[in-house]
TrEMBL record:
<dbReference type="InterPro" id="IPR008279">
    <property type="entry name" value="PEP-util_enz_mobile_dom"/>
</dbReference>
<dbReference type="Pfam" id="PF01326">
    <property type="entry name" value="PPDK_N"/>
</dbReference>
<keyword id="KW-0460">Magnesium</keyword>
<dbReference type="InterPro" id="IPR023151">
    <property type="entry name" value="PEP_util_CS"/>
</dbReference>
<feature type="domain" description="PEP-utilising enzyme mobile">
    <location>
        <begin position="436"/>
        <end position="516"/>
    </location>
</feature>
<dbReference type="Pfam" id="PF02896">
    <property type="entry name" value="PEP-utilizers_C"/>
</dbReference>
<dbReference type="GO" id="GO:0046872">
    <property type="term" value="F:metal ion binding"/>
</dbReference>
<keyword id="KW-0067">ATP-binding</keyword>
<feature type="domain" description="Pyruvate phosphate dikinase AMP/ATP-binding">
    <location>
        <begin position="21"/>
        <end position="58"/>
    </location>
</feature>
<dbReference type="InterPro" id="IPR015813">
    <property type="entry name" value="Pyrv/PenolPyrv_kinase-like_dom"/>
</dbReference>
<dbReference type="InterPro" id="IPR013815">
    <property type="entry name" value="ATP_grasp_subdomain_1"/>
</dbReference>
<keyword id="KW-0418">Kinase</keyword>
<feature type="binding site">
    <location>
        <position position="782"/>
    </location>
    <ligand>
        <name>Mg(2+)</name>
    </ligand>
</feature>
<keyword id="KW-0479">Metal-binding</keyword>
<keyword id="KW-0670">Pyruvate</keyword>
<dbReference type="GO" id="GO:0005524">
    <property type="term" value="F:ATP binding"/>
</dbReference>
<keyword id="KW-0808">Transferase</keyword>
Length: 896
């Protein structure tokens, strides 16, 4: 027979911490605390299976539940020495919800349940404190009516105001017993008026009403939405905890409080918490009175003159400090606790793993390894990879003052300050003169890349988290606030304005790309700390992981950042950005405008030495580590200006008649450039581009090999292949150039040729493509676009709505769609390896730095992930966690 109710308290419990699925987090930990001998008010937990039963059976309870609850209650009565509903010495209980994971949207706790006119009189007599009894009763009516009966709470607040006004009182605490009695009468009348029936005076009816309300709250709109957003299955259900009340509001030898066993913001090993004398339940966090510190050190640190518990209740504090030590030794993790002191006696009401900043997570993990509480792999699991984003970038100096003038989307993390510029050219010019600049645009486009690079940060007033500005800024590791829609940019006037504040070009502003804040003036920032504890955790992570981690980088600055963050190679070196720089774009345009191959070759000849120099620098910085270089990918029109007005300038710079520029731009125009003449299609139209790029790569590699003695491994990557033959033809061009360079220099370049898998057809025909390709790199940005048939640049118009309505769970451009895109990757992996067992496999989309996507890459057995330089540590940690999880899973399977 199923057991529906589990008792706890009095030094023992039927449940345990690892029964969280059945008892919920709160119930399991109340049981565990009882088992390890901590003082927990007795009670019982109604299991999550009852919730499941309730919804599977037309909102009814299992037959034996009633008798089990009664038995549980009897046990509590015996332990406490009071009886539920007894007029002379009543037992009061709290009814608390508790799912497996803490979940907003669930029913609020009801305290003091079991009170009615008779038991309140009994409580007054028994406690010798009339005021306390009436105050508990009126709080109970208010709470129960609000959360169980659904009577609007403002009605009670208004009634309270009236009584206070009549009395001339300001604080609730100024009301005496007769005032409270009057209030109770008023409250009951409100309930009767609203519901057409009296407030339930029968304690049993109250209890079952509250239990039903907890189960009912599992399906409220708020709870359902929360579950959807956090991937919590409906089938989990919630538990209900019924627990004997302890009172922190019986006088000045009573208190209630909350604490963390270590400092949750710094991780320091100090007791960190607050308490309130003569208070109940949530009073501490409700902000009605100023809470006091637990420790003298805490009080001094905050400069508070309210006495610490260590001073006012030294005995209780000592007990609490012992509990802290017990809990940490037992759970081997930092805990977040709730407690109440009744007449100098300490009672524990809750414990759970405490939430913490990433800085604190790292410090606590390292300290606990040193203290012998946890091993190194556990330490690696204790740090949330995504949260490293908080510490890898410069942050605003927490001590500095700031005046926030606007808020946009936190599009790329980190804080930066600079003088406002409105164009990319201006940004580059001022940066070259040594200024720190902030690029402010309505939106950005590929033409702005050089300015984005030169800027400390980017602020846009239009666009979402996957807008051009956001994606490029994240890739570069530049802080970015995007879509700050209230800001009005006046390009002509050289200023922007917001809510009465006007900021002119040349004025300082600061942005925080982690919060989306735009701040007036220059706020100092602090640099990330990459040594010490951070380095230790990363070292343990590196020892645990299987996947290699590379970076997507092409500028020397990004490549050095990648190396500094521990990248083991470059997984994607885009070459087109190299053509946008001022001196190169002219040659590039000449090439595009040339009327024949000879003309193109002439222009390409001018680009060759510049590109070669770029590669020399990158190879040197990577010191022999592999570098995947993608040949030219975008369509040619991206290199021509968009505005016809600028054609004149191009004509002048290239010496081509303006009519020809216009005609060429018109000819290059495409209805759908993303699916147009680009990537290997373009390279097959103009093999001389491929030839030039291959030559630049091999000549650079040979030169660097000679100079350093460490010839780099060049991975030449052909983009957008969908048909094997497309790759065959270009590989032949690359091989020919390699032979030529060998003949010229006497050294054979060390290289392989491979392709990006970014079209469904490439994934499906991977077995054929692998006959030629020596590696695959999954370009999951384009593969997501082409699998969904969805342009990333146009998706923001409806994707947010799709997420809200649950049509898609997550933005597939941020978190890999494992069911669709992932399936294609698995097919390509299997078919690719079928043809070429040692084929090298990696991923180079934005997903390479997304922890859950990294987990997927581990599962399908890729060799490496590649992500933007600033995400390299995140990927290293995520890869380690994925490997540890996989090992644990395998071990569990082996023993089962
Ligand atoms: P939440 O999940 O929102 O934290 P809780 O069930 O923990 O809700 O309870 C809300 C407040 O009531 C907490 O401050 C808790 O300590 C207090 N509380 C709950 N049960 C009791 C009890 N039996 N005696 C005294 N205080 C209680
Ligand atoms: Mg709580
Ligand atoms: Mg692509």
């Amino acid at each position: 027979m199923t057991k529906w109710v589990y008792s706890f308290g009095d030094g023992a419990a039927e449940g345990r911490a690892d029964m969280r699925n059945l008892l919920g987090g709160k119930g399991a930990n109340l049981a565990e605390m009882s088992n390890i001998g901590l003082p927990v008010p007795p009670g019982f937990t109604i299991t999550t299976e009852v919730c499941t039963y309730y919804y599977a059976n037309g909102e009814s309870y299992p037959e034996s539940l009633k008798s089990e609850v009664e038995a549980g209650l009897a046990k509590v009565e015996a332990t406490v020495g009071a009886t539920f509903g007894d007029a002379s010495n009543p037992l009061l209980v709290s009814v608390r919800s508790g799912a497996r994971v803490s979940m907003p949207g669930m029913m609020d706790t009801v305290l003091n349940l079991g009170l009615n006119d008779e038991t309140t009189a009994g409580l007054a007599r028994h406690s010798g404190d009339e005021r306390f009894a009436y105050d508990s009763y009126r709080r109970f009516i208010q709470m129960y009516s609000d959360v169980v009966l659904g009577v609007e709470h403002h009605l009670f607040e208004e009634a309270l105001e009236v009584v206070k006004e009549d009395k001339g009182a300001i604080l609730d605490t100024e009301l005496d017993a007769p005032d409270l009695q009057r209030l109770i009468t008023d409250y009951k009348k409100i309930v009767e008026d609203e519901l057409g029936r009296p407030f339930p005076e029968d304690p049993k009816e109250q209890l079952w009403g509250a239990i039903g309300a907890v189960f009912g709250s599992w399906q409220t709109a708020r709870a359902v939405t929360y579950r959807r957003l956090h991937d919590i299955p409906e089938a989990w259900g919630t538990a209900v905890n019924v627990q004997a009340m302890v009172f922190g509001n019986m006088g000045d030898d009573c208190a209630t409080g909350v604490a963390f066993t270590r400092d949750p913001s710094t991780g320091e090993n100090i007791f960190y918490g607050e308490y309130l004398v003569n208070a109940q339940g949530e009073d501490v966090v409700a902000g009605i009175r100023t809470p006091q510190h637990l420790t003298i050190a805490g009080r001094e640190k905050q400069g508070s003159d309210l006495p610490a518990m260590e001073e006012t209740m030294p005995d209780v504090f000592r007990q609490l400090d012992e509990v802290r030590a017990n809990l940490e030794a037992h759970y081997r993790d930092m805990q977040d606790i709730e407690f109440t002191v009744q007449k100098q006696k300490l009672w524990m009401l809750q414990t759970r793993a405490g939430k913490r900043t990433s800085q604190a997570a790292i410090k606590i993990a390292c300290d606990m390894v040193e203290e012998g509480l946890i091993d190194e792999e556990t330490a690696v699991m204790r740090v949330e990879p995504q949260s490293l984003d908080q510490i890898l970038h410069p942050r605003l100096d927490p001590k500095a003052e700031r005046k926030v003038i606007a808020k946009g989307l936190p599009a790329s993390p980190g804080a930066a300050a600079g003088v406002v510029v409105f164009t990319a050219d201006e940004a580059e010019k001022l940066a070259q003169e040594g200024h720190q600049v902030m690029l402010v645009r309505v939106e950005t486009s590929p033409e702005d890349i050089h300015g984005m690079h030169a800027a400390q940060g980017i602020l846009t007033t239009r666009g979402g988290m996957t807008s051009h500005a956001a994606v490029v800024a994240r890739g570069m590791g530049r802080p970015c606030v995007a879509g700050a829609g209230e800001i009005r940019v006046d390009y002509k006037g050289g200023a922007f304005s917001i809510a009465g504040v006007t900021v002119k070009a040349g004025d300082w502003i600061t942005i925080d790309g982690s919060t989306g804040e735009v701040i007036e003036g220059r706020v100092p920032t602090v640099d990330p700390e990459l040594s010490g504890d951070f380095a230790r955790v990363m070292g343990w992570a590196d020892a645990a992981r299987r996947l290699k981690v590379r970076a997507n980088a092409e500028t020397p600055e990004d490549v050095s950042t990648a190396a500094k963050f521990g990248a083991e190679g470059i997984g994607l070196c885009r070459t087109e950005h190299m053509f946008f720089e001022a001196d190169r774009i002219v040659a590039m345009r000449e090439m595009i405008l040339a009327s024949d191959e000879a003309g193109r070759r002439h222009a390409l000849g001018r680009i060759l030495p510049m590109q070669r120099a770029d590669f020399v620098e990158i190879f040197k910085l990577m010191r022999g580590k592999p570098v995947t270089i993608r040949l030219l990918d975008p369509p040619l029109h991206e290199f021509l200006p968009r505005e016809p007005a600028e054609f004149e300038e191009v004509a002048r710079a290239t010496g081509v008649p303006v009519e020809r520029v216009e005609a060429r731009a018109a000819a290059l125009h495409e209805t759908n450039p993303m699916l147009g003449h680009r990537g290997c299609r373009l390279l097959n139209s103009y093999p001389e581009i491929c030839e030039m790029q291959a030559r630049a790569i091999f000549e650079a590699a040979t030169a660097v090999g000679e100079e350093t003695g460490a010839p780099p491994l060049c991975e030449v990557m052909i983009p957008l292949v969908g048909i094997k033959k497309e790759l065959d033809l270009l590989k032949a061009v690359v091989d020919k150039v390699a032979k030529a360079v060998e003949a010229e220099t006497g050294t054979a370049p060390n290289y392989v040729v491979g392709t990006m898998i970014e079209l469904p057809r490439a994934a499906l025909t991977a077995n054929h493509i692998a006959e030629t390709a020596e590696f695959f790199s999954f370009g999951t940005n384009d593969l997501t676009q082409t699998t969904y048939g969805l342009s990333r640049d146009d998706a923001s118009a409806f994707l947010t709505n799709y997420e809200k309505r649950g049509i898609v769970e997550q933005d597939p451009f941020q978190t890999l769609d494992q069911a669709g895109v992932g399936e294609l990757i698995e097919i390509a992996v299997e078919r690719g390896r079928g043809t070429r067992p040692d084929i090298k496999l990696g991923i180079c989309g934005e997903h390479g730095g997304d922890p859950s996507s990294v987990g997927f890459c581990e599962r399908v057995g890729l060799d490496y992930v590649s992500c933007s330089p600033f995400r390299v540590p995140i990927a290293r940690l995520a890869a380690a966690q994925a490997a540890i999880r996989a090992r644990k899973h395998a071990a569990e399977k082996a023993t089962a």
